[in-house]
Structures are given as structure tokens and as C-alpha cells.
Amino acid sequence: MLNTAEIGRRVGKADYKRELPQLRTRLLEAQRALREAGLATLVIIEGMDGSGRAEIANRLHEWLDPRGIQTHIFWDPSDEERERPYFWRFWRALPGAGEMAIFLGGWYRDILTDGVHKELEPETLEARLAPVLHTEGLLAADRTLILKFWYHLPRKEQEARLAHEHRTPDDRWPSAAAALKGRKLLKTWAERILRRTDTADAPWFIIEAADTRYRDLATGYTLLEAMEKRLKEHQTHRERRERPLPPPEPALPKAESARVTVLDRVDLGAKLSDARYEKRLAQLRDQLRQQLWRAHGAKLTTHLVFEGWDAAGKGGAIQRLAGCMDARLYRVIPYGAPSSHELEHHYLWRFWRQIPRAGRVAVFDRSWYGRVLVERVEGLCTPAEWQRAYHEINQFEAQLAAHNGLVLKFWLHISPEEQLRRFEERQNTPWKQYKITPEDWRNREKRPLYEQAVNEMVLRTDSPEAPWHLIPTEDKRYGRIRILETVCEALKARLD
Amino acid sequence: MLNTAEIGRRVGKADYKRELPQLRTRLLEAQRALREAGLATLVIIEGMDGSGRAEIANRLHEWLDPRGIQTHIFWDPSDEERERPYFWRFWRALPGAGEMAIFLGGWYRDILTDGVHKELEPETLEARLAPVLHTEGLLAADRTLILKFWYHLPRKEQEARLAHEHRTPDDRWPSAAAALKGRKLLKTWAERILRRTDTADAPWFIIEAADTRYRDLATGYTLLEAMEKRLKEHQTHRERRERPLPPPEPALPKAESARVTVLDRVDLGAKLSDARYEKRLAQLRDQLRQQLWRAHGAKLTTHLVFEGWDAAGKGGAIQRLAGCMDARLYRVIPYGAPSSHELEHHYLWRFWRQIPRAGRVAVFDRSWYGRVLVERVEGLCTPAEWQRAYHEINQFEAQLAAHNGLVLKFWLHISPEEQLRRFEERQNTPWKQYKITPEDWRNREKRPLYEQAVNEMVLRTDSPEAPWHLIPTEDKRYGRIRILETVCEALKARLD
Fold first, then answer.
1. Whole-angstrom Cα distance, residue B243 to residue B258?
2. In this complex, is the C-beta atom of A20 within 8 Å of any C-beta atom belonging to chain B?
3. Is the ipTM here above 0.85?
4. H or E element that contains A200
5. Spatial distance between the Cα atoms of B285 and B281, rounded to a whole number of angstroms
6. What is the pTM of this model?
7. Looking at the domain B262-495, which fold is it?
8. What are the tens digits of pLDDT across the range A157-177?
9. Min Cα separation B434/chain A (Å)
10. For labelling alongside B273, which of A324, B197, B211, B491 has CA 20 to 30 A away?
11. Nearest residue to A71 via CA among A80, A79, A62, A84
């Protein structure tokens, strides 16, 4: 595969000088058009030591408008990065709408280095590549243009380059001699990884780097063509108002018994007496505080997700839960409609940003599940978008869990009758009126649609590492205690 | 001072139970009203070891809506924090409009600890407190309500508490015995610091912590009263549309010779030939790259600020400058009108956020000087706001410079005639038309106002640690080279 990149392509000085001005003008034009269209571009640059990866980034900065482009190096992670899942450092560097980011190495760097230096087992390699493929797919589906370049150098040329280059943190080898000696090993691993990750969404381009004029122009043309194609595609879609056909949905028999949902199995009759409530609350507060300090010591990060019907008591439950935690350790993060800035990124971006440091607790007051609940039911995203969200969410939570994370998800459930009662109470109590809006009434009418959405959400995203807990809050006290018990039990099970 | 907080105030259980519900309801109400009014609240909690500082934060979380409040502990700084000026970690934790933040210790913690353990000299203490006073003043002026609490314990009570408390990172002493031994020293330093920082903008409240019911209720009432007062004041101001009278402005004689500005002293005739330009550019590129890698090694952070007339060639100059830097080391950060999210914070917040890590370069394409230029001239902020901005900006830049930072500021200057020529050229060249907007023409008409604003800005914010460079770009090539030379020289002077 890589040997085919030793065929000696080159560009003479005169040709370079002739071709460059037009290439630059078109690149600038394409960059501006992409900015206006709000499309993001991600360029990943990898290659052999000495192939000039940083030079190429510089060239692109020079050719394009540097205000719309940023190069990211992922050298040693900071401690803030180490305390979050591995991909956090990449998410924080992703380009927003209309921007371009260049990743030097990016998520390939560590895998390649570990391949070469630690000889990863095939299954380990596969496991390491899974989130890479997933993330690229997810970004591409969200209209990010992804291009990956591998720069190849023939042996002789590499030898010559390394002889008069000084070492930088980009290098994979301690010395030029080591790099040459490890050259074959790197090629083997690069071929393996490139082949496995060369997808239509995020293709690899292998470019001969021996002649720097050829290298730079080939990079520029490849990038330009991809940008222009993306723009054309964007325009065509807009003109035809075309949307990809959504994937198949579950279709149900008409009989009502066939339309039962997981929510129908929740015991809404569960109750707790006042006295019992106060006693349990005090017990659980002590337990939870103790467990959370243990979790802090063990650097176990807790992610608590709250969803539920309007007026199901989400706010009150979170407040009681918060009252049982140390203010130094937790944060409640409420989510409403995304801001314009948040809309410039993938919908998961605003949740990735808020992942807490190791050993802390994040309480998500509404969450990424908005994608498959309100956004689905209200048509705020396309069917294709919410349908792929289940998989995206599962992968996201798997990454949280794998990084020493405890992920618990709560759906607070009440009957439509109880909801009506609470709505009316809110409307009739002056100091509760602010809690009820016309939107709540509209949502209420759509309950059957939401019930199906909840059912599908629970079916498709309930997992051992991020389980759903359906909590009846018909009796608020019972619900609050069940939540506290669930959190305490899960922490205990994990920490013991 | 602190001994007066040993008078034995207390609240009985029955009184506590009677008073609490109403206090909580009013606190919640005030919190909601502040959120709606978009006013931020900052609570700083400090005190003796054992006085229950964290407990109080917990109590406030419990009493208020935890969704609108966040407690920040400032234990060991992360490496990302250490690489920026000391106050960066506080700026990133500041509450936005409508939010409340509790700082445990906050910017007082290290000063107190160093006072006690390192016996700071009086001048050192004063120097350490200067940015504290400055930052509190700046936030208070920007409508942040600031309350600072000091919790005091009599000796006996402290002894009892510390006996059965286990140590946390909050503690200033390695053991309970040491804390008791150091008690007097801490009191001395606390008194000194409290007295020096007890301002009308950000007052200290000294609260007896021996009786926890008294401690918590007194905190709650003090906070409540401050919130309610702030709300009332906010309403009154809105109703009367009152604005504080701005501070005095410089007033000029009428003679035109008296209205000369610093810009009139710039030599617009400076020129550079094509050949000379290309040669110097190549030389300076090599120099700059080399200096910036040296700066990276020395962890010297470079902040380059670009302001200038429309069409003065800011974009082109930045592009040439960027072409001379390694893409791995710099970032261009363009600033337009602030987003709604940015408007929820102090105007300096969006610049603090973008301070690069140690050894990197930030190129600010427009900057915090917008406050005293466009915002001043267009009336986008009040006169009082832009008038105090000079001092705020000077302090901000002093912090950047003091943290091993090089700060250089460029004003790109052209004559009104040249500007007109460029505007017309843009209008008549199809692929340049996007660069010219009706706003540019409007700004042009206001040139005399902008000239006075520039003059005052340069006069008041030019300093040895953050100098202004007025660059004539009537001849673009000359201007670009001058900028490069200035950056190279400043780096060299600093690094040699």
C-alpha cells in the first residue's frame, strides 16, 4: 500500500509558480463559502518522521485565511485532559460550523505509537480503533468534512531529511537512527491502521512527500477538491430540499395490548410515609456523602442523568439529591434549548464540555436524551438524525463508563392524571405559576408520542454500564428515596 | 476585630425551625428574581479551620435552587491553570448573568496561607492584594453582587471541633494541633487582610460559627438582604433609567493645532520596494520561527493585539505574520460583536478565556480595545463603562505580562484618502466586494471621533510591559515588515 507512494512524483519550480496562485485563490474562495454555509472541516495529518507534517500545516495556514483555521497538536495530555475520557481532548478541539481544524496526528498518534512500541494485539488494536471510527462517522454525519493525509517518504529521502532535522515532540523515535531502524515497523502498523480506517466518510490520502512542491500542491488540490465537492453537495441538497431516507422504524400491531410500553410496568402505587421518609433521607444522606468522598479518593466520576415528564418532580428530586451531597464535589447542569453557539457543533458537544474532573459528580438536569425525546417528537431534528443518536449515545456513555465513570440514568414517571392534577395546582398557586407554561400543556397532548419515544429510548440505551432506572414519582417522597438508594447502591457496588 | 465575634450569639432549635421556612422561600424567590434580572452573585467563604466553611456551602445549595449555583474549590491548580496568569482559574469560574457562584477561599486562600506560613512582607502583601481589589471592583461595577464571609470560632470551640474532624484539602494546617497552635497567627493575618479588602463593593461579614444554627441563619439572612437590596436597586435604576454620572473627560481647546493626535505623528510616507520586501520577509520569517521556538522552550507566552482602521490591511498583515510562525505554536482569534453568551459576562471574560498555554502565541484580531473604540464611539456601553476600561485593561495586560508574557499592541494606520481609495477598489473588484459593508462607510464618517478615541487609548494604555506600536500601512509592505521586525526585536530583547 505505502510502497505505491514511491513512484517519484514531482513538480518543477516553474510549474509550482504557475499553478500556485490559482490554487490559493480557489482555496480562499472555498474556505469563505464553507464558512458562510456553516460547514466544518477537519484535516488530520499523519506520516513518517521527516515527511514534514508540521510544514504542511504551516503551508495550509499560509494559503488559507488563518483566522478560520487552527492547528492542534496533541502532545502530552494536561492533567485536566487525563481526568476525562480520552476523546475529551479531541472534542474540545473540534471545529465549529464554518471553521477548519488541523489535527497533527490527532486520535491516530497514540495508536500508531503504541502499535510500534508496544506491539498491540489485534483485538486491542480493534478496540482502540472503534471509538476513532465511531467519532469520525458521527462527525461526518453531522456535516463535518473529514480528510486524512498520510505522508510517505522513501528510505533514502528519509535518511537525508532526518540527518539535518532536530528532534521535536512530534517524533515517534528518540533519534534519527532509531526512526530509520523502526521504519519498517511503522510502515506495517500504518498500513494496518490506514486500511482499517479508510472510510468513505473519512478517507485517507497517501501522498509522496519526497518532493515538497509535489507534496504541498497535491495536498492543496485534494483539500480544494473535497471542499468544492462538499459545497456543491450542500447546495444541491438545499435546492432539492433533499433529506436522506431515514432508517427503518419499529412498526406495531394495532391492538392496544401490543402498544404497551416499559412505562406501563412501573408501579405507580408505591408510597412512603412521612416518618419513614425522614428517617431514610437522613440515613441515605450520611451514606451518600461517605460514598462520594470514597469515590473522590478512588477518582470515580459519577454522571447522573435526569429525564422525566413535566411536573414529575425532577427539580425537587435533584434538590433533595443535591442536599445529600457535598457542594465541593458536585455540579448540577441544567439543559434547555441549545444556544446559537452550541448549535454550531455536534449535539453531543455541549455535554462533552461539561464532563467533570475525576472523582466529581455531574447531575445532568435534562441531557443528550433530548435528541431522542423532544427533538424527535417535535421534529427539531431529522428522523435520520435521531435514529442514529441511539448508537451515538451508547458509545458516548460507554466512553464515560470506561474512564472510571459511573453512569446512572433516571426517568421520573407519573400518570397522566397525576400530571394534570399537578399542572392545575401550579396554575392555581400564585408562587408556582412560573413553573407552568403553555408548552407544558402542548407536550401533555403529545403524551402517546412521547411514551413511544421513551419506550424506544429505554430499550435501545439501557446497558449494564449505563442503566436506566424508571422511578415512579406519583408519590414524590417514594421517588426521591428510590433515587438516593439507587445512587448509593451503585456507588457501593462499584467501590467495594 | 475578630474577637468581637466571640460574644456568644446563638439560635435555639425551636427558633430555627420557626424562622427557616420563610427564609428559604424568600431566598428562592430572590434567586429567581436575580436570574430573571440577569444579575450575578459571587459569595466568598473563608474562615478558621473547623468553622464549617464547606457545610455552609452545602447549606446554601440546599436552601437555594442547586441548578443556579455552583461551588468552586481552588485546591491545587491544574497544569492548564499554572500555565496562565494566576487569576485565570477564577475568571473561568465566575458566575454569568443570573448565576450564583460560591468560592471556597477563592483568591484569599493562597494569600492567607502564604501570610501564615511564609510571613509575607507588607509590600508583598499589598502587591498580592492589588489584583484582588481590582478584580472585585471590576466585577462589582459590572453588576455582580459580591459578599464575603469570614467564619470565626472561639478557641475552645475550635479545639472541640478539630478533635473529631478529619483533615481535608481545605485545611491550612497539617494537624489539629498545628491549627490550634497557629490560631493566633491566622487571626493576625486574617484581620490584616480583611481590613484591607473590606470595601463597599465587596464587604466582609464576620460571623460567629460556634453555634451552627446561628451561623447558618445569619449567613442566610445576610445573603438574602443583599440579594433583595440589589434587586430593588436594579428596579429603581431601570425605572428611573438612571445612569451614574461619567467621570471627567479631557476637554480640548478649539484650535485645530490643539486637536492633533498621536496618529498625526505617524510617518505615512514610509515605503519599501518589492525586492527589499521579499528579502526582509524571508529573513524575518527565519528569525521569527527561531525566536518562537526559543520562547516555547522558555515558556514565554506572546500576546499580539491588532487594531486599526477599516481597510488598513489588518487581515493581510496577520496573514503574513501567521505565514512566518509555526502553526503548532500560534492561534489567530478573531473578535466580532460579542455573542449572547459572552454578553452574560464581564466584557473581559471572552478574552481571558482565550489566553493561550505557556509558550504559545495568541494573535488577537481585534481585542478588548473594542471597549474604548467602537463601543465608546457607537455608544454600545455607557461613558462610565468605557472610562473605567482603561484602568481595567492596564491591569489585565499587567497580569498577562507578569506571568511571563510578552504583550505587543499594533494600531494599523492609513490616511483617510488611502482608505477611500481602498474602499472604492473593493467595491469595484468583484472578488473583494464581500470585504466592504455599509458599516465601513458609516465608520468612515465618524473618523474624527475615532481619532480622539485612538489618541486617548494610546495615551492611557501604552506601557513598558504592553507597548503600543503605531504602524503606517499606507504602503502595506512597509507595514507588514515593521510588524515582523517589532515582534522579532521584542522577542529577542526578552529572550536574550
1. 31
2. no
3. no
4. none
5. 6
6. 0.85
7. Rossmann fold (3.40.50)
8. 999 998 877 777 777 888 888
9. 10
10. B491
11. A62
